[in-house]
Amino acid sequence: MSNRTITLNETFLIRLSFLFAAGFILAEGLQNWIRGDIETHPEVVVLLLITYTLAFALFILATLNSKSIICVKDLAFLSLVASILVSWYVITHVEHPGAYQTDALAFAHYSAILFARGINPYTQSLDSALTIFSVNPQFITLTPTGDLVSTLNYPALQFLVLFPILWLHIQDARIMIYVFELLTLFVIYRWTPREIRPIVLIPLFAGSDLVINFSAGAVADFLWVLPLVLMVVWIDRPWLSGIMFGLACATKQTPWLLAPFLIVWFMRDGRAIISVRQRIRRTLTFTACAITAFTIPNAWFMWLNFTAWYTGVVTPALGNLVVLSQGLSLITLALGVPLPPQFYLITAVVVGLTFLVNYFTYFEKMRLTVWAFPAIILWLSYRGLQNYFVFWMPLLVMSAVLLYKKRFNNET
Amino acid sequence: MKHRVVALISTALCFLAVSVAFANYYGQIFQPSPILNPNMKFWTVDPNTNSTVPYLWQIDEIRGPSDNASVFQAAIASRPGVSLSVFRSNENESSVWTTVHLRQDLHGQALDAMFNSTVSLWVFPTFTYWYNQRYKNPENVFGIEINDGSNLVWYVFADDQNQVYQFPHHRIIVIQTPLNVWSYRSVDIAHEYTQAGWKKPDSLSFILILGTTNIHPGNWVGYFSGLNVETPLERMSTLSALNMGTLVASNVLIIGILATAGILMWKRERDGYVN
């Protein structure tokens, strides 16, 4: 009886996932029709015909009165991946060919080119990258002096990870972001219990920004999301999850905010069954592995010119950029409430400390809320951009799955 | 119960700390530089003129059909900068002036910041400032123009004596600057408006200008570099007594709600409602 119930539920979830995928593909089909310049790009027309056909096939399959649809249960996932690839092609090859929408990827790509020539990118002005990669002026970052940011402001793995595209002579680094994105989706999908797989990715496809527009627009956050996702997969192995966390931190500063919460995690997790000594050892193992994994990609640049590396990596973390936000600082940006960045920094720190105290105290209940904290803290900071919040979604989905697993394990 | 106290106290302390920060920092102006991309790092194509312009700047030209005007990146005397140049032909054309402008328009907060700032830059003039001795009218220019639609301020950098010419709607400040070398100069726009007796405008254009008249045809060039606007951080206003009272009352209210919630939870626990 129990197995039959699960099968029926799974069938329903598969039907639901087919309809969701079809709806998403239709929405992207319209967007690709608008941005695809179809009069001069016949291949876009072919892609549109294929994707619409796929959407209608999903319509039929979702409503077919047959349990055999369970044989094609992964079709929704594959359709969504296909939709991502089609939109990626249209955006990167038709709408913005060879043009990055952010200065960050232009600087990272240019840094990889410089480093391949034996030049330390942290000591160079990278403003040539803005021209080379035709960066959209709308998305250029300014400092309070009105000047353009033209130095590398990320840890070294941000550009070292782009080396494969240099070796393969690929001109467009956005493909690397998509590789990381597709791997992220695949890992989450495969890691999720079979019966809820059909719906597990729905939160990530709630809009097209996270899975399509940001990556196509050269927002490179999936480069750090993938190691964090793997960290969660291997969270029971502190040395491996520590390495993954270190690699995420060596790619961008955003995951740094997790560090104190993860230390609490390893200190408090499994209190009922693991001794204090073992928990301290797990925490130290995680921390040591994370520091090592962070240091290895950065060590060469630290050694070459520590000041340049430190200035480059800490600049975006401590500020020195103009107020630009979809967060709390909108009250200054749009309403003119006269508050300096220091106010927002203090607010973010105070709220972060409050989260930390409560996370420590109520760990059993709040254990898996940890991925929400950095998003909220960054929303309160003076520079809170959409990609600072939305890229925590894959981790939050994994939290929901972990809670499901825990409940399922308790029931069985 | 003791654990719930942590949530209540930490939340209350969080509100208090943020409120204190709000009261402390409220009114401190955060003004980014009113001039954006002052070092003209990134050049984009202007589809109207099919020429390249520094990002966030605009190029205006006044010239006859046989004249030429251009703006381009140049490194001279070991310093990178921007070059403004005009070629004025000998042909008798309708326009008296041939000029090239590199312009940014300012209004709102940027205008306020500009009137609270000192603008500094490196200049490299290559020609003498000529003006009509009788009427003191300029016959060429290399410098900065501040144009608010009604009034003009010109800062002219040339190897002349420091002097000021005041006309009803035009104020010319000649700042002595040696030719063919880089010199660092600073200007205070608010000061000149005060001296001229003009009101602060609603908007203005900040312009790097080079030009000549039909009296001096030929090629003329000048260079700018390292534009910098120093805006002091200062307290614009503080919370009024009323707003401070509102802030305190809000905190008292929040702490009251949290304390009430704590008492209610404690009572529920004492009466055995909590598992």
What does this protein structure show overall?
Chain A has 412 residues and is an all-alpha fold. Chain A has a domain at 322-412. Chain A has helices at 2-35, 42-63, 75-95, 103-116, 128-132, 157-160, 163-167, 174-191, 197-200, 208-216, 222-233, 238-249, 259-268, 276-304, 306-318, 330-333, 341-361, 363-366, 372-380, 386-390, 393-411. In chain A, helix 2 runs antiparallel to helix 3, helix 3 (75-95) packs antiparallel against helix 8 (174-191) and helix 13 (259-268) packs antiparallel against helix 14. The longest helix of chain A has 34 residues, at 2-35. The model of chain A has no long low-confidence stretch (mean pLDDT 91). With 275 residues, chain B is of the alpha+beta class. In chain B, the strands form 3 sheets. Chain B has a 7-stranded mixed beta sheet with strand order 3-6-13-8-9-11-10. In chain B, helix 1 runs antiparallel to helix 4 (241-270). The N and C termini of chain B lie close together (12 Å). The relative contact order of chain B is 0.20. The mean pLDDT of chain B is 87. At the A-B interface, helix 17 of A face helix 1 of B.
